[in-house]
Amino acid sequence: MKLNLQDASLLKTQAYINGEWVDGADKQTFSVNDPATGDLIATVASLGAQETRAAIEAADAAMKSWKAQSPNTRSEILERWHQLILAHQEDLAIIMTAEQGKPLFESRGEVLYGAAYIKWFAEEGKRVYGDVIPTPQTDRRGIVIKQPVGVVAAITPWNFPNAMITRKAAPALAVGCAIVLKPAAETPLSALALAELANRAGVPAGLFNVVTTSSSREVGGELTSNPIVKKLTFTGSTPVGKVLVKQCADTMKRTSMELGGNAPVIIFDDADIDLAIKGALISKYRNSGQTCICTNRILVQAGIYDAFVEKFAKAVSEFSVGNGFDEASTHGPLINEKAVDDVHAKVESAIAAGAKAVIGGARDPQGACFYPATILTNVTPDMAVFREEIFGPVAPVFSFETEEEAIAMANDTEFGLAAYVYTENMSRIWRVSEGIEYGMVGVNETAISSEVIPFGGVKESGQGREGSKYGLDDYLETKYICMGGLQR
After folding, report:
1. Within a domain: residue 155?
2. Which of 25, 137, 336, 463 would you label with 120, given CA atoms 20 to 30 Å apart?
3. What confidence score (pLDDT) does residue 99 get?
4. Catalytic annotation on 258?
5. 214-to-3, 24, 362 alpha-carbon distances in Å
6. Catalytic residue among 99, 106, 258, 460
7. Same domain, 75 and 220
8. Is 328 within a domain?
């Protein structure tokens, strides 16, 4: 498969370590395929523990001079990286659509979203402040300073192959850390293109390393066990996140985990129903439902349930599912056949238990990785579509009677990443927003993410925050210095 790129040198197939493009020691490769067509896009170098160790050591060496640079110097380099990403937006979007499948307009949007994190942290890195603490003694002063945590390991997912990298790499680099990145095997090409642009921007060799691999356990094992690595940041499933945290315990690494979700959107009978439908459509079906904060459960108050389902189904029926390069497509394929199998199994299980597919619910004939936008009614909390993250274009619509019941249903999950509430009642907004157990709450809005907000969850949805002024905290250590012997 040939990509129509303006700058063909952005399509890299080797890993990027210490400023050089390298193959694995054993010359192994793996295939990257277009999920819409199955066509081969590229064969990419598959590295192992040995090369990962080399990347970590290169990062450690490079960080020594990088952390000594002024925040302004680091900011200027990051800003050049940001500008280069904007200048190559279309090529980056084409690469992303080819390997991930999302429609081209969504890929373009993600490139801008990802670039925004680099610009934000290029500025925010200048604002790492400390404190002077009044002490009980008059002959000393207490000083608090912030220092970079050390070499950072990052493991990123395939659903947002650009933005999930920049919102980890940007704060790490901004405060003086170096980073070793393992992108998802499904979508390494976006990561490698970012590395090429980082190199052009003047990011010094060794500071931003990309270890591509089809041996996730081997590379992950080195990242979590190597004592040089001081922090691991991961975006992905909760089960994998738990394993990584356990592996990091032996060397007491700092961890930040952005894990699975089971987001409810709660729509009360006093809500603007058209606004709620618009928000639910965007949240549920963006990236074909393959987002951690997408609506997983639609909870609608009984009085407007039928009207909501009717309008919602009409809107969904206007979708056009197809190849992401087709400008007419509103939604693309799922990432692979296993994803389709998992989604369809949940739908079949729900239907067998009494649910009704108002629209969709069957496999899509246009390809093995396609699944139609689906709406399920007559669903109950004991079904898998209530308890498990669907990660596909399936919207189960549940009914509730009271505010208390809605809060209880929303909280009836081990996850707590994002939730959404639609109501015109100001008192209810506060009660429900405070009563539901989620790290992020959107009120009359589902497009809640940006570089300026603290993205993250509670319960088994993770720990730490990405973006905003709080996004630097996970990459900094707090050091106390006691200045004694002062004469008055």
Report:
1. yes
2. 463
3. 98
4. yes
5. 23, 11, 31
6. 258
7. yes
8. yes
235 φ/ψ angles, rounded to the nearest 5 degrees: -120, 125
In 67-209, which residue ranges form alpha helices assigned H by DSSP? 71-87, 89-100, 104-124, 163-174, 188-201
CA 359 – CA 376 distance, rounded (Å): 8
User: What element of type H or E holds 65?
Assistant: helix 49-66
* Segment 126-135 mean pLDDT: 95
SS3 assignment, position 301 = strand
Angle, CA 469 vertex, CA 463 and CA 475 arms, to 5°: 55
In this prediction, residues 285-294 reach a mean pLDDT of 97
Q: Give the mean pLDDT of the chain.
A: 97
User: Of 402, 354, 349, 345, nearest to 378 (Cα)?
Assistant: 354
Angle (CA) 222-227-230 rounded to 5° is: 100
Average pLDDT of span 49-75? 98
Whether residues 217 and 120 fall in one domain: yes
Residue pair 262/296 in contact by the 8 Å Cβ criterion? yes
Closest CA to 316 of 272, 360, 260, 367: 360
Number of domains the chain contains:
2
d(CA 160, CA 188): 11
Residue 194 sits in the same domain as residue 281: no
Spatial separation of the C-alpha atoms in residues 149 and 147, rounded to whole Å: 6
- pLDDT confidence band for 487 (50 / 70 / 90): confident
CA angle 242, 248, 249 (to 5 degrees): 95
| Rounded CA Rg of the chain | 23
Residue 368 backbone dihedrals phi, psi, to 5 degrees: -65, -25
Burial of residue 337 (CB within 10 Å: 0-12, 13-18, 19+) is: middle
Q: What is the pLDDT of residues 319-360, one digit of tens each?
A: 999 999 999 999 999 999 999 999 999 999 999 999 999 999
Strand pairing report for 29-33 and 40-45: antiparallel
What is the three-class DSSP state of 251? Answer: coil
| Residue-level length of the chain | 488
Q: Give pLDDT tens digits for 409-466.
A: 999 999 999 999 999 999 999 999 999 999 999 999 999 999 999 999 999 999 999 9
Domain coverage including residue 321 = 263-450
Residue 358 sits in a domain of what CATH number? 3.40.309.10
Give pLDDT, residue 1.
84
Full-prediction pTM beyond 0.85?
A: yes
Cα–Cα distance measured from residue 47 to residue 29, given in angstroms and rounded to the nearest whole number: 8
Residue 455 forms part of a structural domain: no
At residue 369, φ and ψ (nearest 5 deg) are -100, 5
